[in-house]
């Protein structure tokens, strides 16, 4: 019996599984689709996600698929310079989400169980019983990372308040039979929230359109080549001609967030916990950060040494971050809608965002590097994560009784870094109390050890 089941093998579920496995747990990912995704909704990784993936040794595997390094993010198409961000990666990586998911999946010890759509979830005092693909699975805990239409969320009747979609857009990957003169052959930031045309590898283009026709059509209507052609002709003139539509989907600006990320033994992460207009390249990044925040806390809970409240701190820390992204993406949506005065608002906001402090504030939010969880001083930029998911103590001696949860390293600057990379202590008094707060009581002297056993 696995320690933890994960519903959904998208990037969030896969990274959550990887974090749990690194900490020595047995994990089984249940994925609805029979085959790994080849199409990608997201195309952008933000600096904090790049840091996390590099820290886990995953960045090298992504390198061959990197399409662009953009030294800026954007707020509804308004460029937000990243070059002075305090990170080794002051840029967005243009990369298709499917490659990110595949790189994480390749690291899992237990293969993802595919063709296993979750259809029933029950929980009791000791665990969860999950029916998926007609088979019954049992584990102590369930991570629900089954995306924006989360079945687990529906099965549990979890409150998901917010606003329904009011605008409708189409995303499509396609080839062009004829290109208009002057079409950019390299990545550029989108010019407005409601549409862009971006070159991808292999002669493909990513198109996002959201004109009048899209607003009229039913949300479930299939996207046709004719519909995309009409939208592209309207935007780029008669010279543009669609070749083959390889993949297309409709999306909107619904903005919803779970009231509670934890429902007993079920923990929600990624799009299952929050949805919003995908502007500014935030959703995938939120999901990846949810996964690394949850992983070590749930691992500690399963191992039985989580201090009181640690698992609930997952909600306390991550809910406000996504709530803020919902505010940001709703505001960005307003700048992109076809309102006669949207351009006036855009002009004013563009001017305001030129002020260095405003630009730095927005850059720090969009990039994810500005997150400071309560009780931490922000992320450590130069302390690589321990490979076994332990915390890291640098430049100080570790009191007896925590070496199963904390690795020690030499260094001049004292730092205690949580397994998700956030600094819990930076010298001075209170190391013992901090260790207890995040990692639970000291182990009896005879059980002190230097590595975590599975
Ligand atoms: C057009 C568009 C562009 C975007 N661009 C960006 C971007 O540039 N940057 C960014 O950060 N974000 C972007 N996003 C958002 C990003 O794609 C999502 O936030 C991200 O996919 C969330 O990952 P996830 O793993 O939480 O969910 P998903 O990727 O949706 O994965 C959920 C998984 O669960 C599986 N599943 C569903 N139901 C079940 C079930 N019942 N049982 C088992 N498995 C199930 C699905 O098959 C899927 O594999 C974009 C989104 C869209 C629509």
UniProtKB/TrEMBL annotation:
Entry's Gene3D superfamilies? 3.30.70.2450, 3.40.30.120, FAD/NAD(P)-binding domain (3.50.50.60)
Pfam families according to UniProt: FAD_binding_3, Rng_hyd_C
InterPro entries registered for this protein in UniProt:
FAD-bd, FAD/NAD-bd_sf, RIFMO-like
- Asked if Flavoprotein is a keyword of the record, the answer is yes
The cofactor required is: FAD
Q: Which domain of life is it from?
A: Bacteria
Q: Which UniProt keywords apply?
A: FAD, Flavoprotein
MF GO annotations: FAD binding; oxidoreductase activity, acting on paired donors, with incorporation or reduction of molecular oxygen, NAD(P)H as one donor, and incorporation of one atom of oxygen
Q: Would you tell me the protein name for this molecule?
A: 2-polyprenyl-6-methoxyphenol hydroxylase-like FAD-dependent oxidoreductase
Natural source organism: Actinoallomurus bryophytorum
**Source taxonomy:** Bacteria, Bacillati, Actinomycetota, Actinomycetes, Streptosporangiales
């Amino acid at each position: 019996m696995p320690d933890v089941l994960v519903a959904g093998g998208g990037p969030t579920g896969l990274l959550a599984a990887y974090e749990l496995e690194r900490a020595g747990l047995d994990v089984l990912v249940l994925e609805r689709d029979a085959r790994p995704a080849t199409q990608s909704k997201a195309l952008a990784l933000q600096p904090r996600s790049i840091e996390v993936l590099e820290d886990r040794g995953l960045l090298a595997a992504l390198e061959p698929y990197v399409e662009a390094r953009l030294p800026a993010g954007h707020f509804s198409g308004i460029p937000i310079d990243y070059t002075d961000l305090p990170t080794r990666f002051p840029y967005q990586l243009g990369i298709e989400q499917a490659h990110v998911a595949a790189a994480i999946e390749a690291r899992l010890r237990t293969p993802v169980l595919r063709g296993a759509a979750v259809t029933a979830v029950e929980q009791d005092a000791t665990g969860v019983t999950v029916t998926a693909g007609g088979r019954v699975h049992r584990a102590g805990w369930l991570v629900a990372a089954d995306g924006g239409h989360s079945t687990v969320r529906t099965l549990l009747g979890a409150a998901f308040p917010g606003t329904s979609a009011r605008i409708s857009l189409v995303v499509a990957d396609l080839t062009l039979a004829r290109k208009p003169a002057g079409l950019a052959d390299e990545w550029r930031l989108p010019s407005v929230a409601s549409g862009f045309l971006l070159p991808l590898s292999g002669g493909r283009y990513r198109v996002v359109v959201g004109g009048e026709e899209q607003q009229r059509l039913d949300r479930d209507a299939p996207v046709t080549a004719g519909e995309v052609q009409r939208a592209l002709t309207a935007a780029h003139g008669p010279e543009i001609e669609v070749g083959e539509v390889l993949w297309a989907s409709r999306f909107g600006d619904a903005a919803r967030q779970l009231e509670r990320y934890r429902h007993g033994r079920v923990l929600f992460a990624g799009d299952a916990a929050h949805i919003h207009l995908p502007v500014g390249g935030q959703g995938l990044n939120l999901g990846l950060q949810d996964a690394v925040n949850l992983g070590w806390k749930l691992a500690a809970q399963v191992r039985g040494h989580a201090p009181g409240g640690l698992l609930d701190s997952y909600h306390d820390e991550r809910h406000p971050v996504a709530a803020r992204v919902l505010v940001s993406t709703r505001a960005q949506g307003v700048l992109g809608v076809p309102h006669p005065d949207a351009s006036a608002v855009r002009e004013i906001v563009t001017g305001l965002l030129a002020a260095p402090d405003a630009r730095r504030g927005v850059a720090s939010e969009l990039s994810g590097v500005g997150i400071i969880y309560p009780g931490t001083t922000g992320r450590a930029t130069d302390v690589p994560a321990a490979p076994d998911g332990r915390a890291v103590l640098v430049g100080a001696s570790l009191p007896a009784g925590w070496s199963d949860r904390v690795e020690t390293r030499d260094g001049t600057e004292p730092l205690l870094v949580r397994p998700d990379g956030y600094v819990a202590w930076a010298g001075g008094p209170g190391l013992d109390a901090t260790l207890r707060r995040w990692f639970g009581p000291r182990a009896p002297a005879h059980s002190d050890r230097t590595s975590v056993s599975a």
